[in-house]
Structure to design on (226 residues):
């Protein structure tokens, strides 16, 4: 018997290995001229991604872990980044990510922009930003998004789709009666980075990796092996 596995597995393996990698023209990255602050470099790369019309460049993977160390990940939108090295995102506190952050307030963020062969990886502690800022973030959402957040039970088992439709109709009615209504569950989180890594792909696989590590109020930079 072949050791390559069943035909369907071999077919998928061949399909995956035949896919092109780094097929686009890649930008250059010179680490020695990078700014001292990772936020400045993040903004530079983000601006470049927007200019290159990278789809949804503000989308990022948020990775969390429960009390037992079991990880989970999902893609959501980065809401803001500030000069202190805090990356912001929002969610319901009763969702899986909210529950996991409540017992293990550490997380990782990953931005991936394939058209430019770039990744940015951010790790750090996560904290809530308070009711006022969470409410402001909720009210900045579109009416449809507010209704979904207000009427949804994110991550819970849905036995009947009709139940979700009824909850959404009820949420819309509540918002029409009170446009300033805020979900008590909605939370704006801030991840304070302890380290940030910038990864630039190279067609020859001589990838460039630059990691920033927080040392007090300053940052130390390290060039990493590909």
């Amino acid at each position: 018997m072949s050791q390559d596995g069943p035909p369907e597995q071999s077919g998928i393996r061949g399909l995956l290995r035949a896919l092109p990698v780094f097929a686009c023209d890649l930008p250059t990255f010179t680490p020695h001229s990078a700014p001292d602050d990772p936020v400045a470099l993040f903004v530079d790369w983000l601006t470049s991604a927007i200019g290159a019309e990278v789809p949804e460049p503000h989308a990022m993977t948020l990775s969390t872990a429960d009390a037992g160390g079991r990880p989970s990940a999902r893609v959501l939108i980065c809401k803001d980044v500030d000069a202190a090295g805090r990356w912001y995102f929002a969610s319901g506190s009763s969702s899986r990510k909210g529950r996991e952050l409540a017992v293990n307030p550490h997380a990782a963020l990953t931005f991936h922009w394939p058209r430019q062969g770039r990744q940015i990886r951010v790790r750090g502690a996560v904290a809530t930003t308070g009711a006022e800022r969470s409410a402001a973030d909720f009210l900045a959402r579109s009416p449809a998004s507010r209704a979904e957040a207000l009427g949804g039970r994110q991550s819970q088992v849905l036995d009947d789709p009709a139940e979700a439709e009824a909850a959404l109709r009820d949420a819309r009615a509540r918002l029409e009666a009170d446009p300033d209504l805020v979900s008590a569950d909605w939370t704006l989180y801030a991840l304070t980075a302890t380290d940030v890594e910038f990864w630039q792909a190279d067609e020859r696989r001589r990838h460039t990796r630059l990691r920033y590590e927080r040392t007090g109020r300053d940052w130390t930079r390290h060039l990493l092996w590909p």
